[in-house]
Prior knowledge:
Elements: H1 7-16, H2 18-39, E1 44-52, H3 65-81, H4 84-94, H5 100-106, E2 107-111, E3 117-124, H6 127-149, E4 154-158, H7 173-198, H8 205-212, H9 225-241
Antiparallel strand pairs: 1-3, 1-4, 2-3
Helix pairs in contact: 2-7, 4-5, 4-6
Protein name: Capsular polysaccharide biosynthesis protein
Family: Belongs to the CpsC/CapA family.
Domain Polysaccharide chain length determinant N-terminal: 3-94
Amino acid sequence: MEETISLQDLFATxxxxxxxxxxxxxxAITIAGVISFxxxxxxxxxxxxxxxxxxxxxxxxxxNQNIQADLQLINTxxxxxxxxxxxxxxxxxxxxxxxxxxxxxxITVATAENSQVVNVTVQDENPAQAVEIANTTxxxxxxxxxxxxxxxxxxxxxxxxxxxxxxxxxxxxxxNMAIAAVVGLMLGVGIAFLLEYLDTTMKNDQDIExxxxxxxxxxISPIQEKADLKEASETASRRRAG
Length: 242
């Protein structure tokens, strides 16, 4: 026999397990808040901008293909910035106990579309160290690119600056707690329906009809034992008094 579940049954289940669902949401929010505020280490971000000054002749400026060549050159610079040739020297100058691979994971290089500006962004647990890494990376690249590619067209446009009261970019406690609330609600709803599915007890006459597959002919009313005993006692008392 095919079983169907109505919207009323769904809402009844949710209403019945509302306490469980709410508890799961609150528990998830609490765990996310504790982890975000007390466990995870804050990460700070800073960035510096490098300007690539292209020296073009009068004839080359009339050729549109040079635009694409310039962008490819900037992409090449982006790769060189994160190469061991630059990062090993950055680590040595700052006295960092980090390999080029470790520094690479902290640095992000991006270029704006059709722009000659390269953004070097650094994320670190220490905001002052993030600024030092960003500025030193830009300075080392500006110096080393002259020997690597025999060019002198790079300059630091905007160095990184340490703010008086820097704010971490990660973790985001509010976002984490909001996500945890959604996950907690979904988990609570799932557990509520699972418990309802595993509950095979018969609660009403409709359950009897559904399980046995036969119509219900009658219902025995509950016997009020206390009321009946009280009434019988009063009747016996009246008879003895009469």
